[in-house]
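Researcher: If only I could read backbone structure tokens as easily as an amino acid sequence. Walk me, if you will, through where the backbone shape changes along the chain. I have put the entry right below:
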Amino acid sequence: MRFYNSLSRQKEIFKPIKSNKVGLYTCGPTVYDEAHIGNFRTFIFEDLLKRYLLFRGYDVCHVMNITDVDDKTINRAREVHKPLDVITRKYSDQFFKDVEWLKIIPANVYPKATEHIPGMIRMIKKLLAKGFAYKEDDGSVYFNIRSYPDYGRLVQIELSAQKVTERVVNDEYEKDEPQDFALWKSKKEEDGDVFWDAPWGPGRPGWHIECSAMSSQYLGEHFDFHCGGVDNIFPHHENEIAQSVCSTDKPFVNIWLHSEHLMVEGGKMSKSLGNFYRISDLKNMGFSAENIRYQLLSGHYRTKINFSKDKKHQADKVLHRLSDFKDRVTQQKLISNNSSNLPDEFYQFCAAMDDDLDAPKALAVYFNWMKEINKKMDHGSKSPELLSSARNFLDAFDNIFGLFAQSESVPPEIMSLAERRKEARKKKVWSVADELRSEIEKRGYLVEDTAKGYKLKKL
């Protein structure tokens, strides 16, 4: 597999740090409002990455943070005159409902920033001790970007050619004015009771230190993938690299993947233009989860794509073709099935996915194959070999893209149970594995263990 690494600006062959294991960190929602379709373009791309890694047999540990304290969350709580935790809990709950509805496989861990303050303080202590950070009289702590020679590598800026201003307290700012950024923000009156005690004074963490501390806690100081949208590249991911590398003296992340912006109705999302869609809005318009997934996955993750209400009918037609084909194949009586029996097109499909998750090319391969199989079946060809290979390719396609209707696709909670069972089998805790198999069967699915991992089938 090759991936386009945003750090090197080239495709690189993926080599896991630990054999057959993948550490994946994805920047999650800032829970001050409902996540919108632009956010979910990134989350669904990350779901495709994770699904494909799982399909390829990797043991994926996926961590997605929940930003429940930052400038935006505090400002929203102040605007509506409610406690911070009331606001963040409301939108966290909505996010998880949207994730389940969109058939996104849940992360292994969803760490909340407010529950990991001690780890952030420990990292800031290290940066201060090593001379990469400094304290201000008001109790704030800043990272000195001039102290890290590689600062700007991800976003491709040279500090020597930039106007470097003193400091910035805001979480977000432009790359043409790189500045020392806040690791710890001193307590302010407008923050109310949102503060924690630290050796340098009461306050709260800066946004960037949150992800560095939480990723290292759950994935270690050096891991395989870090993903987000292109808007995360600067300053967020640039700052994450600086503070993580300087605190650990180790490489931080091997491969950085970023999804492009999503256009909506031909333009940038804006409430004033009426093209600002939350998942709840799209549900009310009659969109299915599969329609949204298809529109967001039909373009390559590194290209801008346009999400539109006008494309709903066209996407539904494609989904009906997919569903009709699946019904046609699965309704045929299958005498026996060899899981290794796969058509040549399957390997073309995998070759496309291996090349930086080229979903459009992979979809084209699948659709052309589907057309050919329909022709053969129209002419009476229903050999065991054809039906067996067709079912196997169908299962693989469904596991990777999740485009079949909810009733026909494996629900996320079943996937979660199956992942727990895989972990139990790996540790040879057979009693737990058997209990989980029984629980999965009670919920209507059969687990089939193969040389390449497990398969889930509807009973």
